[in-house]
Amino acid sequence: MYYFSNDHESLAEKMRKRENEVLAIISEYISKNKKSPSIKEILHKSSLKSSSTVHAYLQRLKENGSIDYTPKSPRSIIVKK
After folding, report:
1. Cα–Cα distance measured from residue 39 to residue 62, given in angstroms and rounded to the nearest whole number
2. pTM value?
3. 29 Ramachandran zone, left/alpha/beta (phi>0; psi -120 to 50)
4. 11-79, which class in CATH?
5. Which helix (H) or strand (E) holds 34?
6. In the chain, what are the domain boundaries?
7. What pLDDT score was predicted for residue 25?
8. What are the pLDDT digits (tens) for 55-76?
């Protein structure tokens, strides 16, 4: 089942866009700073509204194999793809 917003974009499409946004933020940060960003840094650079949402997207990215990280370990994100 797909849910559509006023702009006719499905919820799945919005989630993919936000996943790609978070992945791009992580990749750019690592290339510039040679370390991964903190949850708060990802939050401030993204369109997301809470750190728990950032955690949820990190988990989704980990599940689909785009990143790896150690939970509760600071700056442990590694981009795999």
Report:
1. 15
2. 0.84
3. alpha
4. mainly alpha
5. none
6. 11-79
7. 98
8. 999 999 999 999 999 888 889 9
